[in-house]
Amino acid sequence: MPAEPPLDVPTSLVEAYELLASGPRVPIAGGTDLMVRITGEIGATPQRLMDISRLEDLEGISLETGALVLGARTTYSEIRRSVLCLVHLPAMVEAAATIGAVQIQNRGTIGGNLGNASPAGDMLPVLLASDAEIVVGGSRGERTVPADAFFPAYRQTALAPDELILRIRIPLPQGRQLRFRKVGTRRAQAISKVVMCVAWRSHGAASGWSDVRVAVGSMAPTPVRATATEAALEGQRPTPEVADRASDVLADELHPIDDVRSTAVYRRTVAARILHRILRDAGGW
Amino acid sequence: MTTRAMPRPAAQPVRSAPDALVLEVGSTTAGRAAGYPLRREGPAKLTGAARYTDDLVFPGAWYGATIRSTEPRARLLRIELDPDADWSGVVVVTAADIPGENLISAIKEDQPVLVPIGGEIRHHAEPVALLAAADRETIRHLRSRIRLVTEPLTPVFDPEASDHVFAAYDISKGDLDAGFSAADVILEGEYRVGHQEQLYIENNAMIAVPAEDGGMTVHGSLQCPYYVHRAMKKALGLTGDQARVIQAETGGGFGGKEEYPSIIALHAALLARKAGRPVRMIYDRHEDLAATTKRHPAIVRHRTGITADGTLVAQDIEVIMDGGAYCTLTPVVLSRGALHAAGPYRCPNVRIRARATRTNTPPNGAFRGFGAPQTEFAMETQVNRLADRLGMSPAEIRRRNAYELNDLTPTGQVLRESVAAQEVLRLAVEASDFERVRQATAASASARSGSGILPPGRRRSGAASAASGIGMALAWHGAGFTGSGEVHLGSVASVEVTGDGRVRVLIGSTEMGQGTSTIFPMMVSGQLGLSADAVEMAPVDTALVPDSGPTVASRTAMVVGGLCIEAARRLRAEVEARNGGRPFAEVYRADAAAHGPTRIDQRFEPYPGISFDDEAYRGDAYPVFGWAACVAAVDVDLDTAEVSVRDVVAVDDVGRVVHPILCEGQVEGGTLQAIGYATIEEIKLDNGRYLNDRLATYLIPTATDAPNMRTILVEAPFSGAPHGAKGVGELPMDVAAPAVIAAIHDAVGVWVTELPATPERILAAMDAGVGAGDTSGTDAAVTSGDARRGAP
């Protein structure tokens, strides 16, 4: 068994697509998740890697007709430094700042976070709550997968074996707010016990919220949207009664587990309390 | 007794990153080091030139690996090598290859080097066979082709259910029944602490190099070269000259490289012996976490009687420690735990019953504090709960009971000198403005309760999202070895003028980042009238340096330092006498040229007037004690119960400060390690296996979790050491955890009685105790004087 899997280094998307079509390859960008799997101690060693660092099509952050578009190879550090992200999606900047250490943020990418499909991926609830669309491509062409359909099962993605994550497109509707909160064991460099992103559109103080999204990580085998909680909040304003009810619904809706990092009871309780706090802060009471 | 508060900047430093250290080319850090030498090994570490074990190159060396059990308890029937695999280019070692005794040299020799066929596997990470090959790929390929055929046996995981007792002690004084009948309040409590990993930056590592004469040299990361030396003689059947141990640069130990390196050295040596070439045994972090020793988990039960005016009258204490699968140092860890269990308090009637038992988990061993952090956490939390019950300040209850000169400890030891308990307490209270802050946190707690539109509930907390609290603890730490330990050791330290006119210190004490190689030249040069730079440290090589005892028990500066100072004084007297009384500094080079080398070996002499009865557990358990007080201020997030330790005042009496910056570093590091112990460091077990066996799951505080720390060093010197030092390494580890737990209680009104106080435990206690007072749920036979404070 070789110490390091063989590596292909395509210089164009066409070449990358051809390589993917010719046999299974795991794309590697920053390598922050993949490198720790090389020893084979944690899961299987990837059999063959494809270095995507030369694919310029996967780079960059831009604004395109009402949407923010991030190349799959955008690093967390680039998100943290991006004025576009800060102006249009500050919750994403906040999430990027909680991931790993500076060294990890310099290497780790948003596409990698998606591809790794960890239920604890800190950026993923932001993508779910913001209705992100994942644009994937292969020799058969490009297609778009909504973020909430991207994780069919534990550590699995909607990618076909011959497909590559190209970019993430996040619509920027008028009046949308996002709130992010991560709970880890320590202040930095900790995998989440609970991570949450809440989004809503408000149309003035008198009318209720619309397009409410409540997305959580580390609470289920995949990052998930809490749809019953979203329904409980849709059309409502963040009053104490609504916050109370929504928190109850969220706690009932989620079925986390005990594991090495936390307990099911803590995760449910704290998810409910974080949501309650977000609603309280939004309601200003 | 002299007390000195070290000068500190008047302004509180701002939180976040430490001061930037900017060096101009050619300059020194005089302003920062305040005239004290920089760390001697510092430049090599900073520039990457320092050579740790894995940096050492031995041409032709093979890599070694350990084949471990995967069961907590089983009979080993056979070891099968897959006949389809190619075993020609490798060596496999089993117990049958051990030339000497198949035992790790220790207190009770119960641990085999490798489990023999027919022998019992006692924990899931137990070494059973060894494998070496020229490259790592071959090892990776072949290690899965070695099959252990076993017959499962029923494991024991509960230390209270185990019938195999490694050690037990009974310490008592006075009349317990009379004490409890004089009490106005009797409080019971049960406290639990789990495993803690030392988490040195450098993993364990050893390289064995066979010699042509049948001898063996090991180079490795270690604290105690002569422990390894003894282990090699025993298991490899070598003479003292044939076995040679050389310490490589060592990246931290904290007790974790006290006894375990003996095992790795033997494994590397057995492979090297069979392969006929050097073998490198370098643990990766996962193996190091999964297999090497941890702090002993413990259960401590207290029943305490106190009068209404806050005077302790009776203490009944039970300590149970989990030794893991083999004895290792458990009897002495338990002993120190038991001897510190009643805390630094005067009490006429005390009973301490302590036992340590065997379980089918990896063996526990030495870790900074060595049993005392476990029992002092329990005692200090008990004292804080007593103060809470009496409605008395935690500072006041301690003032009324803390030891003073000539008080009597539970073993009947008279505290004849150097008792700074009241001093460190006073300084900590003043520096933290304890009473004022405590009033403020109490006021905001009562303002919090009942506020907000919705009252707190399980799904929500109140209007405030965080609560602040302040807490304190007081601790003592016996200096040096327990009981007659130093007398039995009979350590030797040497100072010499070499034939070519260099002054050199020869000790078996090791530098592992704590400052040995910096402070010994200081201590010796002061006696000789030289600059510290003029004094060399001999490499730690058993072929060169004497057995100065292990580098443990905070004994290096105190005991070995004392020996070196005496040796230097004798050296100076001898050289000056030969040279008409002219100063040593002027004549030693010429003296060496004229008379050749002069070497003074100084052997430990018992401290005058100190004696301990190891059988009856009576007398002077330690020659002297160090004293520490800690005040911690925390913020607790009321939604998530996350704890942020914001500010700490640490006051430590170390006898005499040798190097203020290194000493302060020890206090800060020990305090942060204790904060990790108190809040986040946790090992969960499944069928006797550690689940948190990687750095992704075993978390320690990082720089961003570190509080503002104000360190105050106090000097109450020990007359038995020529320089008065009492040691500093372990003392701060004893005291910060209970201070943090008290601060959490002050913030949110719940006592967490099991470490670590994770948000999961705090939240469970808060939810259980909304509207109640003391919710430890383990206690509470309150006879009177109940003065509960309502929880927010």
User: What is the strand arrangement across the widest sheet of chain B?
Assistant: 3-5-1-12-9-10-11
Spatial order of strands in the largest sheet of chain A: 4-5-8-6-7
In terms of DSSP E residues, the strand content of chain A is: 15-25%
State the total count of DSSP E strands of chain B. 28
**CATH level-1 class of the largest domain in chain A:** Alpha Beta
Write the layout of secondary structure elements.
The complex is a heterodimer of chains A (285) and B (792).
Chain A: E1 7-8, H1 13-22, E2 26-28, E3 49-51, E4 61-64, E5 67-71, H2 76-81, H3 83-88, H4 90-97, H5 102-107, H6 110-116, H7 124-129, E6 133-138, E7 141-146, E8 164-171, E9 176-183, E10 194-201, E11 210-217, E12 224-225, H8 227-233, H9 240-253, H10 264-283
Parallel strand pairs in A: 1-3, 2-3
Antiparallel strand pairs in A: 4-5, 5-8, 6-7, 6-8, 9-10, 10-11, 11-12
Chain B: H1 30-33, H2 42-47, E1 62-68, E2 74-81, E3 90-93, E4 120-121, E5 127-133, H3 136-143, E6 146-152, E7 165-173, H4 176-181, E8 185-193, E9 205-210, E10 216-220, H5 225-236, E11 243-247, H6 260-275, E12 279-282, H7 285-291, E13 298-306, E14 312-324, H8 330-339, E15 350-358, H9 372-390, H10 394-401, H11 421-432, H12 434-448, E16 466-478, H13 485-489, E17 492-497, E18 503-506, H14 516-528, E19 535-537, H15 556-578, H16 584-595, E20 598-603, E21 612-613, E22 618-619, E23 625-637, E24 643-653, H17 660-679, E25 685-686, E26 689-690, E27 708-714, H18 736-748, E28 754-755, H19 759-768
Parallel strand pairs in B: 1-12, 8-28, 10-11, 14-15, 18-19, 24-27
Antiparallel strand pairs in B: 1-5, 2-4, 2-6, 3-5, 7-15, 8-13, 9-10, 9-12, 13-14, 16-23, 17-18, 17-20, 21-22, 23-24, 25-26
